[in-house]
Structures are given as C-alpha cells and as structure tokens.
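[09:14] KT: can someone run the structure on this one? pasting the chain below
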Amino acid sequence: MRKEDMNTAELFLEAAGIVAMLACLVLQVCYCSLYGLSAVPVFMNLAVMILVYAGLCLLQIYPERVNRLKKEACTGDIRIYTIRMARTVKLIVVFCLLFTSILDVIGQEIYSGNSLMAVVCILAVVFYYESKIYRIIRDISNKKD
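[09:31] RB: done, structure tokens below
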C-alpha cells in the first residue's frame, strides 16, 4: 500500500510491525551471544523471519496476487480488505516471533500450544477477510447477470 493511501492508524500499525521485527532480530542475536550458540541456526532464523516479512509486505503492495484477480478487479473494498488481511497476518506473525524471542532470551520454555494458537489466529483472520472478499465478488457477479 502506498504511504499516501494509509491513514494514521495504519501508519502506526506498520511502524509497530517494523519496530517489533527489529526487536526480534536484536533478541535473536542476543540469544545467540548469551547462550553461546552457533551463528548458523540464528542466521537461518533471521533469514526465515526476513523472508516471511518481505513476502507479506509484497502481498500488501500487490494485493491482486492474493486472490488471483486481475488488477482491474482488485479495487475498492476488495483491495482494502486484502491489504488489511495481509497486514494483520504480518502483525500476528511478527508479534508471535517477538514473544517467542523474548521467552528464549529470558530462558523460559515455550509451550507447544503457542504455535497452535498463532496458527488458529492467522486462519481466523484469513477466513474473516476472505469471506468478506468472497461476498463482494459474488455480489458483483450477481449484479452483472
């Protein structure tokens, strides 16, 4: 999404996501140095985090790729909901990674249910926004008939 198309709340959410991602990167490096780990696993974690973040950012820039719509069809509410969905999923992923990085640094065990809760949250967000997008597309196709 272009900066001029964003409102203040969306700008703050993007800034919070960026700050959380940077904090997660710093915490991963701290985790490596505190516990004397090899740099390879930490580098792989950082690479995966950056790739997932970049992929979700690209989906915000090119929202028509999410639902395989033509660029002309991905306008209005469809575009807005797709961008919001990508942003919300990105924030969930980043804040879950930040939470696990904080627990790693302080030496707490991460419960296996945390990952499941994150996946359920992501699926709920995707289902919510995709159902809205599907309804809009269905209404548009019904009006054409």
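[09:33] KT: thanks! The mean pLDDT is 84.
[09:34] RB: yep, looked fine to me
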